[in-house]
Request: fold
Amino acid sequence: MQNDDSSKPRKRIMVFPSPGDGSSVITEALGNGAFDLRFVLDSPQLAKSVLELKPALLLLEIDCWRKQTRDLLCELGNLKSTQSFRRVILSEIATVDDRVSALELGADDFLVKPISSRELLARLQAVLRADTSFAVEEDIRSFGSLSLYKGLMEVSIGNDRKKLSLTEFNLLSYFMDHPGQVLSRDRLLENVWIPWEIEDRRVVDVYVLRLRQKIEESSAHPSRLITRRGEGYLLIDPAAN
Reply:
């Protein structure tokens, strides 16, 4: 028996589909009424549509990684909006470098076809669990001046608060569980990532960089999330040193 969730607001998913009938797996995965599903076909108006529709998640369906997609992610990252939204790419083909580039530019996940509607739904639901617009603030963890908000999926340093993706949150949480310990890439992959998400160990470096951009004054000269060359990374309290 299904629970009656009619009283809960449906999360809005905005889809920018590729030409043709490639979006059929999206409709199959999301077209059951559980989400407020909106399709936007006009590429030049995509950023404006995001501001107007205020989706919890934007799903970009592309044939391959192109400069236009890179530029679009940059444009979306520069939007002045009071509400955050997740970005997921669904592509026909992609190299490891394509995926790394997308993550570096702010994508929360990069999926490659063929993909079943069940897996697509599960992956999008995992990303949406990091959407804070339906969460309440709870379970605050602190390490020095760093505070991690579980319910809101946010991190703060003093009065500066920033939202985290699900993977960013899980990674920072694991570092906070092991303060001052050097954690190797293999250990982080084993404890933070799901095995079938791992295709290249560089994904750790990508997410460490993303965390540094949110918790460091200068990501190029980190004082909290430190690299030990040849060993791994460690989280320290700069005020304690």
Observations:
- The chain has a mean pLDDT of 83.
- Residues 170 and 192 are 6 Å apart (CA to CA).
- The radius of gyration is 18 Å.
- The longest strand covers residues 57-62.
